[in-house]
Structure formats: structure tokens, C-alpha cells
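Q: Hi! First time doing this. I have a protein sequence and I read that you can turn it into a structure. Is that right? Here it is:
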Amino acid sequence: MDQSSHITAEISGARARPLVLVPVFALISLAGALFPSFSLGAEVLVVAVGGTLFWLGLSDRTPRRSSPDRLSARARWWLVPGLTLGVVEAINFFAGSTLEHPTLSNLADPILEGYLARAAAYFGWLTAYWGLVRR
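A: Yes, that's right. Below is the predicted 3D structure, encoded as C-alpha cells:
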């Protein structure tokens, strides 16, 4: 391995540490929470940050974690609530969101009106997406 690629790998590995990423994600989350839901600023932020993370996931610029060969039994149990929420959301989407059967996004709107809850949701989205980028 030549010297320049070795230095590049060390720099990207240092930037991928939680000591660096947590404050960066916190700043992005706090800035994103300033925008109201579905506003132009919020959409631009989500597309810009999501696009950047998507690009990092496709490139070889981030250190990768090895993926397990198969899911453990404990991990498979997490599919149950995920699939259940997905089925409920799909049924409500196709049946039309009504007061009797609201979509999950309609149920989350009152919670996400608060600044701290919206910032926490942004932070959760960023950390989950970063976990996908590292795989």
C-alpha cells in the first residue's frame, strides 16, 4: 500500500469516530429542528444530509463494519414490530387516512411539533442512517 492511501484511510477512520460524529450530528439535528415540518428548509436539509450519507455509503471513503452472515434469533424478533407497523401503515395509506385510522405520521405530528422532540428525531434518523452507511 502506498503512503498516500494509507494516510487517507487513517483520516477517514478518525472522522468516523463517535467523538467526531456525535457533535456533528447534534449540530445538524439542532439546526434541522428549527425548520417546521415539510418546509423548504427542512426538505433541503434532509436531501443534502441524506444525499451526502448516501454518497458516503456508495464510496469507499468510510470504514466498514463486517455484516453478520445471518440474523440471530434475538435480532429476528425485531422484525415483528417493524413488519407490524409497516402493515398498519400500508393499510391506512391505501384505505385513506381518517380520524378512525390515522397514519403513523399523523400520530407523530403532535409529538414532533416540539423543538426537542424534532431534534431527537433528526438525531435518531442520522445515527440510524450512519449505521446503514457503515455496513
